[in-house]
Specification:
This protein has 10 helices and 8 strands. It is of the alpha/beta class. Strands 1-2-3-4-5-6-7-8 form an 8-stranded parallel β-barrel.
C-alpha cells in the first residue's frame, strides 16, 4: 500500500484562509514560543475546513532551559524559567504540558512535536527525564513526536525509547534517518541552514524517503511555501 503523504509548513506561510485551501496540514509554532489564548486557537480550528489537520509544537518550558535564546519571545517570568526545560519533573514543566494539551484538544490536533534543544545530549539524567515525562504526560488520543538533534543519541537508544514511550522519531531526513519508519514525521529545516532552497534533486531524494504507512513533510525553511508547493507538484506527477 502506498504511503499517505501530507505536505505542509511549520507555521502559516500564507493568509489563513488561503493556507487552508492550499495544504491539508499545518504545524502550529506559536505554542512553542508563547502559547496563544484558547480563544485564538478556537478561531483557527473553526476557520479550518473539515478534514484539515493540525499538529503543534510543545511549549518550550517543557524542553528548553533558561539559557536558550528562544526565551526572548516568551512572557514567562524569569524566576519560572529557572525551573523549565529538559523534561524535568518540576511544577513549571507540568503546567507547560497542561497548557499544551489543552490547546491541542481545542485544535483537535493529531500530533504534538517536542523539539529538544541542540545541547540536549544522551546523558543518563536526560534519559531519565524523558522516561518520567512521557510516562507521566496524559496524551489521550494524541501522538507524541520527539525531535532529537544532538549526535550522542544512538539509533539503538532512540529506537528503544520510541518503542517504550510510544513516540514518533521526528527528523530532518537530510540529516538523519528515522527509527520509526511506519509513521514518519519530517521537519525540513534547510540543508545547512534555514535560508537554503531545496533543489529539484533534493526533492526527488525526499520523495524516495516517503515510504511507510503515513508521512508528514513539514517545511520549515525560509522558502517553505515555494518548496512545499514544488514538492506537492512532484508527488502529483508521480501519482
Amino acid at each position: 500500500m502506498a504511503a499517505k503523504i501530507l505536505v505542509g509548513t511549520c507555521g502559516f506561510c500564507l493568509a489563513q484562509r488561503k493556507y487552508y485551501a492550499t495544504f491539508p496540514v499545518i504545524e502550529i509554532q506559536q505554542t512553542f514560543y508563547q502559547p496563544p489564548s484558547e480563544a485564538q486557537v478556537q478561531k483557527w480550528r473553526e476557520a479550518a475546513p473539515p478534514g484539515f489537520e493540525f499538529t503543534l509544537k510543545a511549549f518550550q518550558a517543557i524542553t528548553h532551559p533558561p539559557s536558550s535564546p528562544t526565551w526572548r519571545r516568551s512572557r514567562l517570568a524569569v524566576e519560572e524559567r529557572q525551573h523549565a526545560g529538559y523534561f524535568g519533573n518540576t511544577p513549571v514543566v507540568r503546567r507547560a504540558w497542561e497548557t499544551t494539551r489543552q490547546l491541542a484538544e481545542i485544535l483537535r490536533a493529531t500530533i504534538v512535536v517536542f523539539q529538544c534543544p541542540p545541547r540536549f545530549d544522551a546523558r543518563q539524567e536526560h534519559v531519565r527525564n524523558l522516561r518520567w515525562f512521557f510516562h507521566w504526560a496524559e496524551r489521550g488520543s494524541l501522538k507524541f513526536g520527539l525531535e532529537i538533534r544532538h549526535p550522542s543519541w544512538s539509533d539503538a537508544l532512540l529506537r528503544q525509547l520510541c518503542e517504550e514511550l510510544e513516540l514518533i522519531h521526528v527528523v530532518d531526513p537530510f540529516t538523519r534517518a528515522t527509527v520509526t519508519p511506519r509513521l514518519k514525521y519530517y521537519r525540513l529545516h534547510g540543508i545547512g541552514g534555514y535560508d537554503y532552497q531545496y533543489t529539484d534533486a533534493d526533492l526527488q531524494r525526499l520523495c524516495g524517503w516517503c515510504r511507510g504507512r503515513r508521512v508528514y513533510c513539514m517545511f520549515n525553511n525560509t522558502f517553505m511555501l515555494e518548496d512545499a508547493l514544488r514538492f506537492r507538484q512532484l508527488l502529483e506527477t508521480l501519482a
